[in-house]
Amino acid sequence: MYKCNAAAPDCPSRVVVFQVCNSNSIKDDNFEVYLNGTYIGFLNLNSNSQIGSVFIGSTNANYAIAQPDFVCPLNLMQTYRFDPSIILYGNNTIELINAQNNGAGNFGSIGVRNYQLVGNSLENPCDITDITFGPFASGENFTSTFSYTECCDTPTPTPTPVPVPVPVPVPVPVPTPTPTPTPTPVPVPVAPTPVPVPVAPTPTPVPVPVPVPVPVPVPVPVPVPVPSPPAFSAFPSSNTSNFSDVCTESIPNTYYHDGANALPIAGDNVYSDASGLNALAAGYYRMTTDFYIRVAAGGEVIEEAICGTPTPTPVPVPVPVPVPVPTPAPTPSPALCTQFYTETGGSGSSAASCSNGTSASRRRHNGLSTYPEIGDTIYTTGTCTTTFNGGSDWYFVGGDLSTIQINSSGVVIDKDYC
């Protein structure tokens, strides 16, 4: 008996792997894949071939499938990795959430395997379950469950027999019998006859045993494990875009990143190829219905965010009407006072400012556009009465992907786009 939401079976030398693929080679919709409510990767089935994705239950980027055991070929799969702690003891739920309607219906297969971990290789798979999804109409979602309550048996290697040396018999010397002396008759004392003196027999040499050589065991070389090359995880993406349009872009591409999660986050690097040789260009990229990233020059992710975050609306400041009084009239505030966000501390050059790419400080300007242009004045207060001393440094402007140079009087004297 098991409890709901209990931890999965403890299999220290096993890794759970999923394959979801277009087994009938007729294009299907694109889906976001969830396991027990957690996003684990993307499924691009918009092609008439056996394409799909594999999902490895480990965040170790060096683990690779050495013995594939699925319906669809491994070389047509995109690879994703996920935290194995989301797998439960008992019933587990797989959801395919429709991300793009490709108009050809849906039918395919889901294979769930338990692989033995040998070094960094995934070998000796055993079946957990096989699931058929579909047929169902384009634009719809799919949900299924499978039971996971025990580990597979790990095969025990057969020991190699060690040859036992056969002992060589040692020859045992045979003793030579000693001759018994014949008694000599005593002569009659007529005339004394000399008594012969017995001669001692010559000893027979005893053979010396020859030592038998003992066989010396030959050491067997131990293979040195060869480290696997760093693996890159695939993720769905739009073409490069800007801040204003990124959340409306379609997601037709598959790109790659070097992070440990299913989707790249700040600090990861992103590439257009699976070997990590070509970094993505700087800009904004939509990954799923809800998420996008901003990429700096060189392919580093410097920000991840959720679509739908509202952009601050500039609040116009009313122009005070001077009232004629005997005392001198106060200095009127600027006609416009538009709020925007910029880098807190300045940088010595436009390139350094673009590389910093932060916009944590709220300031205001008196220009006609949403973001400041050359000739506008920058203020530190909500009433646009105190000018900002920029010290002729450069300041990154959030939302505009630009950087401006501000002098000590608060005036914008130059502007570049990042």
Fold and architecture overview:
With 418 residues, the chain is an all-beta fold. 2% of the residues lie in helices and 32% in strands. It is built from 1 helix and 22 strands. The longest helix has 7 residues, at 350-356. It is elongated and about 165 Å long. The protein starts with 13 loop residues before the first strand and ends with a strand.
Explain briefly what this protein structure is.
With 418 residues, the protein is mostly beta strands.
Order of helices and strands: EEEEEEEEEEEEEEEEEHEEEEE
What general outline do the C-alpha atoms trace?
Answer: elongated
Q: What helical percentage do the residues reach?
A: under 10%
What is the distance, rounded to the nearest whole angstrom, between the alpha carbons of the first and last residues? 60 Å
User: What is the number of beta strands?
Assistant: 22
Q: Strand order, biggest sheet?
A: 5-9-8-1-4-6
Global mean pLDDT: 84
Count of alpha and pi helical runs = 1
Q: How much β-strand is present in the residues?
A: 25-35%
Q: What is the CA-atom radius of gyration, in angstroms?
A: 43 Å
Structural class: mainly beta
The main pleated sheet reads as:
6 strands, mixed
Which stretches are poorly predicted, pLDDT < 50 over at least 5 residues? Answer: none
